[in-house]
């Protein structure tokens, strides 16, 4: 969801109730939200993927229940914020409607129910009558890689590599009584200015900036200077300034110390798990700079890679090269990676989520662990023009980021995306459109 209103904010707590009354509309609007980043909402459907895309989902009552509940909860977000969205959705990929599957049409089905709900809110007093923001509905097939690949921002690595409970991080602090270290909970949320500043920075950049901040604090703060030079002489005025600065200094020091420890733990995991080499291969696969040869070589030489990281690598590989997992090829890769049959089911499901494209099938025949150098490599991302990679492994970007940026610039691709707000053409307009198209085709032919 992309809102054009910069003043919109998230609502804390588990449930918020909103009631609006109009002549013909009196509704209890229930909005379910959790503790999530600013302007982020969830519909609290952990089984949505199974209920909407699972086997025989189209014949299940759970499908309609899940879809309608999700639509209502999404619509009530806009009702509570008094925003009237332009509802866009990713349309079916098949050019021939007869080839469109039930699952291809799910974004459109969800968009339809949301639109039918939010359009009724126009009868609420003071509710906008024209579009004020954008709602973009996508399914996971638009980008299967983003949830799996190792992203290298401070925020992503905190949640990926550390044992966190939501935004809660447990840190050990020295005991005031001199006993065993005490455990203290810290929340990485918007009230923490250091977190807000560094969360989207590359982990290497965040680590450097934290070091600079701590050095600067210790060198310039009066209280820090007094602690470091306790034998020195201070005037009464100096002591007064130290006392005044001490609470603020302790707060800043504790906050920075927390993030220094977190960054240190992340960097330790990166070293212990060999994530730099793995991360480089992941991004090379995505950008078309690596293929079967590099994956096989990694699995052969990096035997100590954790099963989870090998699984994530093969999930990315299957998304870029789905044809490499057909027939008995998947079992050969499973043996090389030493993954369980259950893990390979996950890899296969990842491949099926995006569908196997005929254009990606570059080879046939039996699977071999020998690499054919003549085979072309594939890519699911293009390097952004005019942008330099300041930090290593900062090349990857989620597809939704590009879509939202284009939406904000007004250059959103109409091919493959539709809008519920657009007026439906009449039969006469459809006929004229077909005539113009045929006429145009004839003129090009001659």
TrEMBL record:
The domain of life is Eukaryota
Which residue intervals make up region (Disordered)? 355-384
- Extent of Low complexity compositional bias: 355-368
Give me the segments passing through the membrane. none
| Gene Ontology BP terms | vesicle-mediated transport
Pfam families per record: Sec1
Sorted alphabetically, which InterPro entries does this protein's record hold? Sec-1-like_dom3a, Sec1-like, Sec1-like_dom2, Sec1-like_sf
Basic and acidic residues biased stretches: 372-384
Family named by the database record:
Belongs to the STXBP/unc-18/SEC1 family.
What is this protein called in UniProt? Protein transport Sec1a
Query: Which species is the source of this protein?
Result: Acer saccharum (Sugar maple)
Organism ancestry: Eukaryota, Viridiplantae, Streptophyta, Embryophyta, Tracheophyta
